[in-house]
Amino acid sequence: MHNTIEHIDVFVFEREPNQAYLGDVSDGDIQLNEHHFVRKFNGTVYPLRDRSVVVRIIDKDGVIGWGETYGLVAPKIVAALVDDLFGPYLKSLDPMSPDKVWDAFYSLQRNRGYWGGYLADTFAAIDIALWDLYSRAQGISIQAAIGCAGNGKVRAYVSGLPKNTTEERVELAQAWQAKGFDQLKIPISATQDGDVPGEFNALRKALGEKQKIALDMHWCKSTEETITIESAIRPYNPWFIEAPTLPEDVEAQIRIGQSMPTPLALGEEWRTEWDYRLRKDSCRIVQPEMGHTGITQFLRISKLAQANKALVMPHATIGMGIFMAASLRAALAVDAAAHEFQHTIYHRNGALLEGTASCEEGYFDIPDTPGHGVVPNDEGLGYLTLLQV
Ligand SMILES: [Mg+2]
């Protein structure tokens, strides 16, 4: 008889943020309620609070695993799926084979076309918790469970410069550079009057030739607009261009990726390796998001991409930080080229966890401690509310 899962609990994590990632709510944005608003520039809903869904599983020996996924919208969806389907099913599966559990979950509804979305986010939370439990039960780290034991460093790139003017953003980028962070990504919305080349010119002049500067286009441009913007910023040596056009438009992604000398980066919205397989001829950088993929699909996407000579640079979304800790362990194991560093929240929410990896002088410093290395501390537990269906 294999080990069994005895308990699975789903919590919502919620906390007032200290700074909005893309800046504050502004003219033309629509505030829906206390949780959400819609950005005018790309029509996408964004949170007003840090919010995610946290899962805790406990096996028959009392070993605990923690996982996390998105909870930005309707976090009770995850609790409902766990209550109705995945909780009961998990109790019949072997938790010492997390990847097989993921496959078993996916098989339940793949033939009905349920290939992603909230369903796969639910798998991701459970998958992270299972990998955590699986490795803790053996007293080893997740990177060791993947087959790459040891501590190590992962390069961090600074994500976003949340200031109102180009001058202030340049100053903030210089401050990060002085602290040893010489890789940076800016969102297209944070430019003076939409002048992307002007923003790149100012940053390049101030930061020098060695600084890496990437552009996140937040899915808001057409193929032609993207190609025009890329050629306009090419004199400033952009590092990569991320998510330029509609996320489902594979044809456009392939055309853009094959037209631009600047590498195309995609992947923060993907759930599975199937999302990458469709796009393998488009992007030279993949950005798996642990909160959507879990460890199982993060590893499969990374392996396929690396076999195709693409670089892995994981995305980092906003939450409590459990998925971030898991992402760093997996990034170390696959030798990721860099990892996104959400500097406005990483240390703030990381303080709610025991064991958060440090991020200093341009690198995350990842220890070889059991599991993904983090557990909510007493303060962190205070931000978790059990979700009842
Ligand atoms: Mg992005």
Please name the defining characteristics of this protein.
389 residues, alpha/beta, Enolase-like, domain 1, 2 domains, ten-stranded mixed beta sheet, four-stranded antiparallel beta sheet, 13 helices, binds magnesium ion
In words, what does this structure look like?
With 389 residues, the chain is an alpha/beta fold. It folds into two domains: 136 residues, Enolase-like, domain 1; 226 residues, Alpha-Beta Barrel (TIM Barrel). It is 37% helix and 21% strand. It has 13 helices and 19 strands. The strands form four sheets. Strands 7, 8, 9, 10, 11, 12, 13, 14, 16 and 17 form a ten-stranded mixed sheet that branches. The protein has a four-stranded antiparallel sheet with strand order 6-5-1-19. A three-stranded antiparallel sheet has the order 2-3-4, with no helix packed on it. Strand 16 and strand 17 form a beta hairpin. Helix 2 runs antiparallel to helix 3 and helix 3 crosses helix 10. The radius of gyration is 20 Å and the shape is globular. The relative contact order is 0.15. The model has no long low-confidence stretch (mean pLDDT 95). Magnesium ion binds next to loops.
Summarize the structure.
By secondary structure, the protein is α/β, with parallel strands linked by helices. It contains 13 helices and 19 strands.
Q: How much helicity do the residues have? A: 25-40%
Task: Identify the bound ligands.
Answer: magnesium ion
List low-confidence stretches: none
Provide the structure class: alpha/beta
Overall radius of gyration: 20 Å
**Terminal Cα span:** 31 Å
CATH class category name of the largest domain: Alpha Beta
How many domain modules?
A: 2
CATH superfamily of the largest domain: Enolase-like C-terminal domain
CATH domain fold name of the largest domain: TIM Barrel
Helical stretch count?
13
Strand content: 15-25%
The count of β-strands is: 19
Q: What number is the mean pLDDT? A: 95
